[in-house]
Amino acid sequence: MAFLSRKGSMGIFFAAALTALVVPAGLAQAAQCGNTAGGYSTWVQQFKKEAAARGVGRRALSALDNTRYATKTIYADRNQKSFKLSLDQFMKKRGGQAIINRGRSMKKKNAKLFASLERRYGVPAGPLIAIWGMETGFGKFLGNQNTLSAVATLAYDCRRSAYFTDHLYAALKLIDRGDLSPDAIGAAHGEIGQTQFLPLNVLRFGVDGDGNGHIDMARSRVDALASTANFLRGHGWQPGGGYQPGQVNFGALQGWNSASVYQQAIAIIGKEIDG
Fold first, then answer.
1. Residue at 69 is within a domain
2. Residue 31 lies in a domain
3. Residue 157 backbone dihedrals phi, psi, to 5 degrees
4. Is the distance from CB of 133 to CB of 102 less than 8 angstroms?
5. Contact indicator for 212, 100 with CB cutoff of 8 Å
6. In total, how many domains does the chain have?
């Protein structure tokens, strides 16, 4: 799994929708970002005051106290190399042919599910299965980092503090409403679940596909796949249109991940699965 600028490109303008409450005038100085672990604990306490003023609940605020500066997240953020590979190298590194082979089987095994998703969102099985396979090996590898610590660390880190602060508020909202455990484990940048959504996009595009009252991106493949189809639709997917480079729906794949090799890999794998 790798992050680049995926699944969160609309995050900044949506931040206001997460927190309708206005931060009161006279709030203490904003939490100061940092580039080392040294200031993280102080930042957390400052940020908690801001979050409380924005209406974040006790459950989520308490969860912040249990976060730790995520050194592995910072390392991953500074060393994203796979997107510099050629398309052929990228496909081999990601196991493209293996995803195609298993993806065809997954399509047959879950035919009713994929048919219902296509009816509702207009997105065929191929690109959904390609994303599912490339992101987590069909739900097998969800990551090994504490989600809240990862997002909080990137919100604290000065490199992209504003961008990840939006995602941190989203993660806290998900915790408050019971859709994310404070102890949730995910990928290095805080991506959640079987198709690796950043927190803000769970709020924007998450779907309770199985109808149990919660959006569970990790344990419910129906929720994860329905949310992914909804994401693509929200990024301009047109029912019945092609999704290869130059076709109408390739732009929606570009919304999923800004790396050209990743976009092309989804299109290639999806086409092979869809036949």
1. yes
2. no
3. -65, 135
4. yes
5. no
6. 2
